């Protein structure tokens, strides 16, 4: 998957190499949660009982790898600073493919103007509420306060990948970043 390839390469370049047997765990999970990132162990949990097909698993892995990337590069305070969590959730919803038009149509939620931003905001709030015992108002406030900066933080993709083709282009661009900078 080009999304995962790019994130794994970016993490490696940031000094956080990911090992499949160490950093991924498949488990049965409660409710309808599909996955999570455990910052204490730097482990991505995939909820094998709630992931039904490969494309869903690819999105979950990408979403959680974005959290792992943020953990690696930004030293996120996951438990004490809800704004840090909000920022990573915004980035994960924005960059993982969670809010593609096809996914939104499948959820019977779609619009035209500004819909991607609305989806990202809504999914970030839902994710915060799923992992922290905070009020909806607290989650909404945190998302609103950091939304613009975090929505526009496109690292390591450099763009919002709206499809696998976009993700492949982003990965190719990422691989060539140093080559372009060396010529300056």
From TrEMBL:
Pfam families to which the protein is assigned, alphabetical: Peptidase_M76
Source organism of the structure: Fregata magnificens
Protein name: Mitochondrial inner membrane protease ATP23
UniProt keyword annotations, A-Z: Hydrolase, Metal-binding, Metalloprotease, Protease
GO terms classed as biological process: mitochondrial protein processing; mitochondrial proton-transporting ATP synthase complex assembly
Family in the record: Belongs to the peptidase M76 family.
EC number: 3.4.24.-
Annotated InterPro entries: Peptidase_M76_ATP23
GO molecular function, one term: metalloendopeptidase activity
GO CC annotations on file: mitochondrion
